[in-house]
Write a structure and sequence with these properties.
The complex is a heterodimer of chains A (about 450) and B (about 425). Chain A is of the alpha/beta class and about 450 residues long. In chain A, strands 1, 2, 3, 4, 5, 14, 15 and 16 form an eight-stranded mixed β-sheet that branches. In chain A, helix 7 links the parallel strand 10 and strand 11. The longest helix of chain A is centred in the middle third of the chain and has 26 residues. The radius of gyration of chain A is 22 Å and the shape is globular. Chain B has about 425 residues and is α/β, with parallel strands linked by helices. Helix content of chain B is about 30%, strand content about 20%. In chain B, strands 1, 2, 3, 4, 5, 14, 15 and 16 form an eight-stranded mixed β-sheet that branches. In chain B, a hairpin with a 2-residue loop joins strand 15 and strand 16. In chain B, helix 3 crosses helix 4, helix 4 crosses helix 6 and helix 10 packs antiparallel against helix 11. The radius of gyration of chain B is 22 Å and the shape is globular. In chain B, about 55% of the residues are buried. The chains are: A alpha/beta (about 450), B alpha/beta (about 425). At the A-B interface, helix 3 and helix 10 of A face helix 10 and helix 13 of B.
């Protein structure tokens, strides 16, 4: 009864209440909440770099001051006081890279079937599963991503299902358990998938959906059930009728309808995005981002008007029919239209170089007279990504008071020759290219050359 | 739309073809010849009859030549995709457009993909406007089909093609036979990489035997072989060293097997993958085994690649191993071999060696370096004019020449781009073309 009541409350409250009712751990954390503790840090000033703030600004010969895990100040000629001084002259500094679409830990390296935990491809609606229950923290891909400047990422279930389950946002820190990596306070995502994948997976088994119209019927039926579940919970709350048995699948969908869980919708084709927007309107929920939005450039205005981010690759195309119309100027056209543009990876290799993927777009855009400055492009994998994950109030840009999630690059990050030199997460130096002995190594990588993401 | 694209391309190709009879001189650029001349500043490249007639500084521009001022620009040889299925795969997941995987018992080494090559594939213009002028088109292993037909340890014959619109598309037919070791070999050979190696060794031994006893075999007066006659014919030139054998291999132990087989059968061996090749750099150099790698693959994607690292290209090149990029950037993404090469440079590879790895090195591997791969008099005029460092991510070709023809810098992607760059119309996009 009590659990049912809290299901309609904000998630943060849900955790608190659950903790009170069921008893907190010895460490005081409620079940399924973050056990992340920032690594030790010291007051630090990074001096004399080119700083891309993530807010659209570029500051030359500027300093970044971090203390207590937070950004304290950004600007030229700041007072070093008694802080640790790092000479970053000639280097570039950006907010830590954020990937909104990763399968690290759920499809880890090596890609053996024993570790293939990203798609619960047993029914078209598995909104009840949570990606965090599949994450293997020893995936060497996490450390490789760290060497690529990544400080946070959302781990999503795969796209076999209409509703793949909940995604989880992690800090890219080594953890013995996923709970030690969970980004404090980050909302859950709900992975939905349009198009070819669900209809192929279930159609090939002779079950629904086998068509795009079958996909849509599947989404709508599920939202009708979720709406009904919510109404019964609300009625029971007011003493009208028996509360339904707690249902993990409907709880996730109800969380979306309550605005507590963000919809991350795998959707390639422009026309399908329009269909998904109508479904969202019919049931009163919001789509936060279309992922793999290969055709987003065809409907850039529609996405902007509906407040939906387009999370995309730079140049993937041609691997299937719904990716046939991919063009490298996708991000440029979206950004020009004022649509929230996000560069994502969906790849353990790609996540290591979201800066490089963005650079390819900058060059392609320049050919057609669209000038995209570095300070603008950097938003695609920092502040815009943070916005899509609902964590932009605490990270994604270099502004006083935000988490000191910072990447120092050896040069302009949009050059192929630039590498992440130093990565700070909550002010703690987690990766230092010049000092590999202090960098993390997963258990799996011990004794191999892939110690630090294959870069030595 | 497709019709109008191919029409446009055909018209432009005709125009380019007519123009190629004349002499063209490109002046003022920094030219990376990737040949004995090295890098030339403020150089002139003279193109005649599709070939490089002259190259150097202080060259007299022939009278009547069409002049292209490339001052401040960079010129490199055309890029060579060392491995992939360009023209053999239009849409990855649309089976009817894919012709590189052969399953069942009809062919293995003799499976020849050259006739399936589609020079009108939309992927060709997409690739060549980014600089790919030549490519190896190769058969590959694939998953078993619905009837359980499996592909084989030997995938078949690979060829080199040119990506221009006119002339014979084949640069050289049947340059290599593709073989599968490691996890891929194991999957197609009874579940053990040892079985794959045994099958391979038996086929090579059969080819040697067949070569000596062809007449008796044809009379029906000789023993049975493990593979078909078509396969034996394909393998004869492999054991004669005239045709390369490309081995899919990543684990160091499999690479050691390649070195052993190369010595045992006097093979001209090429490794594709080579994740752990850096551990055997000196042995590979001594055995003259070339390696095609992916400059960005640093994760243990499977247990064959536990020691994958980003420094592989630099380590191999420094040890004297011939290196190419093309293990990751292939087919639809063949154009990203520049990114692969750039990342190798960022991780220790010499810049000139990296450029060679996407131009001359694959040409040498496949025995077409007399025609292409570097900018030298007498070689085909496959070249690119760049505005900036070709390995940089923001850098794209300004103009690409294949066999002396200035190719149209247009693709299905640029048509889509141009349609959707327009916003000032009251009619749907279908009316913009």
């Amino acid at each position: 009864m009590k659990i049912l009541r809290i299901a309609v409350l904000p998630l943060s409250l849900l955790f608190l209440l659950t903790a009170c009712e069921q008893g907190a751990d010895s460490d005081g954390a409620a079940p399924w909440s973050s056990r992340y503790t920032p690594l030790p840090s010291e007051a630090t000033i990074l001096q004399g770099a080119t700083v891309l703030t993530g807010t659209g600004e570029r500051l030359d010969n500027a300093d970044v001051v971090m203390d207590g895990g937070k950004i304290i100040a950004v600007g030229p000629g700041l007072d070093a006081g008694s802080m640790t001084v790092v000479d970053t002259s000639g280097m570039w500094i950006t907010p830590g890279v954020i990937d909104v679409h990763s399968h690290l830990g759920v499809y880890p390296s090596p890609q053996v079937s024993a570790h293939s935990d990203g798609n619960e491809a047993t029914a078209p609606n598995t909104a009840e599963v949570w990606a965090e229950h599949s994450v293997w923290p020893q995936d060497p891909g996490f450390v490789a991503a760290l060497a690529g400047g990544v400080t946070s990422m959302q781990i999503l279930p795969g796209s076999a299902n209409l509703f793949g389950g909940r995604g989880v946002t992690l800090k890219n820190v080594p953890g013995q358990s996923v709970q030690e990596m969970m980004f404090p306070g980050a909302p859950h995502g709900l992975k939905m998938a349009c198009g070819e994948n669900p209809k192929r997976v279930y159609g090939s088994r002779g079950t629904s959906p086998s068509t795009r119209m079958g996909n849509v019927a599947g989404y709508r039926s599920a939202w009708i059930a979720a709406d009904d579940y919510r109404k019964k919970l609300a009625a029971a709350e007011k003493g009208r009728g028996e509360a339904p048995l707690r249902d993990l699948q409907l709880e996730t969908l109800a969380g979306v309808l309550d605005g507590e869980i963000l919809v991350h919708n795998h959707c390639y084709r422009a026309d399908e995005m329009a269909v998904m927007i109508d479904i969202a309107k019919e049931f009163g929920y919001k789509i936060t981002a279309f992922h793999h939005a290969v055709e987003a450039y065809k409907v850039a205005d529609m996405l902007r008007e509906n407040g939906i981010c387009a999370a995309i690759w730079a140049d993937w195309y041609g691997f299937k029919m719904e990716a046939f119309d991919g063009i490298r100027e996708n991000a440029a056209i979206l950004d020009r239209a004022g649509t929230c543009t996000v560069m994502h990876s969906d790849s353990a290799i790609g996540i290591q170089r979201l800066n490089q993927e963005s650079a390819k777009v900058i060059g392609a855009a320049a050919k057609v007279g669209i000038d995209i400055a570095p300070e603008r492009a950097v938003r695609w994998f920092t502040s815009n990504a943070a916005k899509a994950l609902g964590i932009d109030d605490v990270t994604g840009s270099l502004e006083p008071g935000k988490m000191a999630d910072v990447t120092v690059w050896s040069g302009n990050p949009f050059s192929v020759y630039a590498k992440a030199e130093r990565v700070y997460i909550d002010g703690a130096l987690v990766y230092d290219r010049q000092n590999p002995d202090v960098n993390p190594v997963t258990d799996f990588s011990l004794g191999t050359s892939a110690l630090h993401g294959g870069a030595q | 739309m497709k019709f109008s694209l191919s029409m446009t391309a055909a018209v432009l190709a005709f125009a380019a073809s007519a123009a190629s009879a004349q002499t063209t001189a490109i002046t003022g650029a920094t030219v990376h010849t990737v040949g004995p001349e090295g890098t030339l500043e403020n150089a002139t490249v003279v193109i005649e009859n599709g070939q490089i007639a002259e190259i150097g500084t202080g060259i007299q521009v022939p009278a009547g030549a069409k002049l292209i001022d490339a001052s401040g620009k960079i010129i490199t040889p055309g890029l060579f995709s060392a491995m992939g299925q360009l023209g053999l795969s239009e849409v990855g997941a649309v089976s009817g457009t894919n012709d590189a995987v052969q399953r069942g018992d009809d062919f293995s080494a003799g499976f020849d993909v050259a006739d399936a090559y589609n020079r009108r594939s939309v992927v060709i213009p997409i690739s060549r406007i980014d600089g790919i002028t030549r490519a190896l088109i190769a058969p590959r292993a694939g998953r078993p089909d619905e009837q359980g037909n499996s592909s084989r340890v030997l995938s078949g014959l690979a060829s080199v093609v040119q990506l221009g619109d006119s002339g014979n598309y084949l640069t050289r037919h049947g340059v290599a036979v593709v073989a599968n070791l490691g996890e891929t070999g194991s999957a197609v050979a009874a579940g053990s990489r040892a079985a794959a190696i045994q099958q391979l060794r038996a086929a090579l031994a059969d080819a040697l035997d067949y070569r000596r006893n062809k007449a008796a075999y044809e009379r029906g007066d000789w023993r049975e072989y493990s593979v078909s006659t078509a396969d034996l014919e394909a393998l004869i030139s492999v054991v004669e060293g005239e045709r390369s054998m490309i081995f899919n291999a990543n684990r160091a132990s499999d690479i050691e097997v390649v070195i052993k087989l190369a010595s045992e059968f006097s093979l001209s061996a090429i490794i594709i993958g080579g994740a752990e090749a850096w551990m055997l750099a000196n042995e590979l150099a001594a055995a003259k085994v070339s390696v095609i790698i992916d400059g960005t693959a640093n994760l243990p994607g499977n247990f064959d690649r536990i020691n994958a690292r980003l420094e592989t290209g630099g380590i191999l090149a420094a040890a004297g191993v011939r290196v190419a990029f093309g293990a990751g950037a292939q087919t639809h993404q063949a154009r990203n071999i520049t990114q692969s090469a750039g990342n190798a440079v960022a991780n220790g590879m010499d810049w000139d060696a990296a450029l060679e790895a996407i131009t001359l090195a694959p040409a040498e591997m496949y025995g077409v370096d007399r025609e292409v791969g570097s900018l030298e008099p007498g070689k085909s005029a496959d070249l690119i004019i760049w505005g900036a460092d070709p390995l940089e991510l923001t850098s794209y070709p300004e103009q690409v020449f294949i066999q002396g023809e200035s190719i149209p810098m247009e693709s299905r992607q640029t048509l889509l781009r141009d349609r959707y760059l327009q916003t000032d119309t009251v009619k749907p996009p279908a009316f913009r073309h």
